Amino acid sequence: MGIIVDRIHEMKGILKKASVDFYLVPTADFHNSEYVNEYFKVRQFLSGFTGSNGTLVISQEEVGLWTDGRYFVQAEKELSGSGIVLYRMAEEGVPTIEEYLEQHVENGQTVGFDGRVVDAAFGRKLEEVLSDKNVTFVYDKDLADALWTDRPDMPVSDIWVVPEEKCGKTVAQKLEDVRAVMKKEQAAHLLITKLDDIMWLYNIRANDVDCNPVALAYTFISEKEAVVFVQAKALKEEAKVHFEKYGVLVKDYAEIVAYLEQCVLNGKVMCACNDINYLLYKLMGKRGELLDRENPTALLKAIKNEVELENIRKYYLQDSVVLTKFLFWMKKNAGKQPMDEYSAAMKLDHMRSEIEGFLDLSFPTISAYKENAAMMHYSATEDDKKDIEAEGLYLVDSGGQYVGATTDVTRTIALGAVTDDMKKHFSKVASGMLRLADTKFLYGCTGKNVDIIAREPLWECYIDYKCGTGHGIGYILNVHEGPQNIRWRYNPGMKEALLEAGMIVSDEPGVYIEGSHGIRTENILEIVKEEKNGDGQFMGFRHLTFVPIDLDVIDTKYMETSDVRKLNTYHEAVYQKLEPYFEGEELEMLKDATRAV
Predict the structure, then answer these.
(1) Rg (Cα) of the chain, in Å, rounded?
(2) Which residues does residue 358 pair with via DSSP β-bridges, in sequence order?
(3) pLDDT value at position 152?
(4) CATH class of 160-299
């Protein structure tokens, strides 16, 4: 931990020299992506904390790190001995970053950050909170860059074109849909900086972010013109021909600022301030009137078309077959042959890679045994992993990228003896997942309306999980996708989206007992239309995931009769879907794993 202490000390020296009193280092790239490439991991470099979400605030008096409930256990462990104070977000008595700055920044002081990695919405919030303190904002410098002498290079990978038969819509059709929204909003221009939105719009993919098939890019669209900014090294002949075919003008990625400073504006510029970075927001705000709206592409890509849905259903079935076979292998071999969290993850990753059309993982596989599963986004490594024996609970959260789908699924299984508390928690989690999947709701609901259905069995026991119940999933894109989500907490800054037919969402309640065990059961659901009558259009869900729920950890005394019925109905469907892909001993295991209880 000494190296982190030294880096923080050096960083304080840099800030003092630059006359910056408070410096913010978030977990972000220039596009507010959820996962960031090694080049952008400045916060990790300075703090040693490896979680995917966290913000460092550095001043001469104190260094604090804010992260959410998924990472409390992990952050406490990784920050130990660094002198960095852990601020547990959303916990009682813990100030937000804005509240902390409001309390600590004095009149006339300077607050700094790299404006390319801070989103405009947060930057505007800081302006508002500190408006009466005569604060100077410095946002045009990455002050940590000089300290990071062996910083990795900016990521760049070849852009490839998604086969048109896999897309369901051409670039021309998608641009037409986007311009229709622009016209409705009375916007003359649209600036999109969110990478998965740009990839979806132009039917392209790349590999500039681990597990996310995206290229670093921007796009600026008007009624007659569409300009895309990508790195020159990424542009091969196939992509050039593709862009020319649809009349898309290509410019170099580094030209975005110069272009936006000089381009002709003839009306309002539409952009999503939750996604656009603060530097571009300030630049465009000086040039003309900004219209803060969600990218039209967000909703358009969230509602999958029939071609996409057909491919998604196909690949989720294949993915379910592989995961089920892996779980059977784990149950059969744990304690009989040497294995650990890392080697188990590598085996599953290899099995998934053999599915035709496999591109990559959709996120690093979470393979967590016993107490490690209590850390929601725990990651075993070759050098830091736990041996697996024939006892306790094992959790695996994993997914793949395919030329036709992005998958995500979590299962928890018993590898031997488990406690009664574990069975109780497991049974409640399974009940919650199945209840939500079986829910009928009226069109007009958002995820907030249905979240409690998954939590109810746990809330009855005064247990909760510190995250949402569900998120959207991309199509050959990011495993976490909006605008839809399923979460209960009121957040005035968070936009809610209607649950629309064609969207897919995760359903993943869980229990996380620090130092003991973690349980999560996650299925992916397709939102569908049900009956329509005088009361309105009723909606429902359909399972895309068909993987057994471990009956060795189910105790029906902790379940309602209706929950047991849902479990048996689900397992009947699992058997029907998977049976053609199993034979011999594995088929017998499948029959036993899906038996009625």
Answers:
(1) 25
(2) 402
(3) 94
(4) alpha beta
Residue 533 CA, distance from chain mean position: 36
How do residues 312-332 score in pLDDT, each as one tens digit? Answer: 999 999 999 999 999 999 999
Token pair, residue 122, equals: 């947060």
Q: Find out whether 160 and 205 touch, Cβ atoms under 8 Å.
A: yes
Query: Percent of the chain at pLDDT above 70?
Result: 99
Return residue ranges of the chain for CATH 3.40.350.10.
2-138, 160-299
Domain with residues 303-593, CATH architecture: Alpha-Beta Complex (3.90)
Sheet containing strand 226-230, strands side by side? 249-252, 226-230, 217-222, 189-192, 269-271, 290-292
Residue 469, CA distances (Å) to 298, 438, 526 in order:
20, 15, 15
* Nearby residues of 82 by Cβ (< 8 Å), 6 or more positions away: 1, 4, 5, 8, 47, 48
DSSP state of 383: S
Is residue 377 predicted with pLDDT exceeding 90? no
Predicted local distance difference test score (pLDDT) of residue 376:
83
CA 13 to chain centre: 35
Tens-place pLDDT, residues 420-455: 999 999 999 999 999 999 999 999 999 999 999 999
Residue spans in the chain of domains classed CATH 3.90.230.10? 303-593
Query: What integer is the mean pLDDT of 237-242?
Result: 97
Secondary structure letter of residue 59 according to DSSP: -
What is the reported pLDDT for 503? 98
3-state SS, one letter per residue, for 297-353 = HHHHHHCCCHHHHHHHHHHHHHHHHHHHHHHHHHHHHECCECCEHHHHHHHHHHHHH
The model's pLDDT over 449-499, given as tens digits with 9 standing for 90+, comes to: 999 999 999 999 999 998 899 999 999 999 999 899 999 987 776 678 999
Provide the pLDDT confidence category of residue 125 given band limits of 50, 70 and 90. Answer: very high
Collapse the DSSP code of 388 into the 3-class scheme (helix H, G, I; strand E, B; otherwise coil) and give the result: coil
Average pLDDT of 106-124? Answer: 95
CA–CA distance from 155 to each of 78, 205, 265 (Å)?
A: 26, 14, 31
Averaged pLDDT of the chain: 95
- Cβ burial 350-360 (10 Å sphere, 16+ → b, else e): eebeebebbbb
Q: Which are the contacts of 150, defined by CB distance < 8 A and separation ≥ 6?
A: none
Q: Is residue 358 over pLDDT 70?
A: yes
Query: Is pLDDT above 90 for 273?
Result: no
> Helix/strand/coil (H, E, C) string of 186-230?
CCCEEEECCHHHHHHHHCEECCCECCECCCCEEEEEECCCEEEEE
SS3 8: helix
Measured at the CA of 316, the angle between CA 444 and CA 321, to 5 degrees, comes to: 145
The CATH code belonging to domain 2-138 is 3.40.350.10
C-alpha distances in Å from residue 442, one per residue of 344, 415, 446: 42, 41, 10
Which residues are CB-contacts of 187 (< 8 A; sequence separation ≥ 6)?
Answer: 267, 268, 269, 270, 291, 293
Helix, strand, coil share of the chain (percent; to 5): 40, 20, 40
Please name which of 398, 395, 387, 434 lies closest in space to residue 414, comparing C-alpha atoms: 395
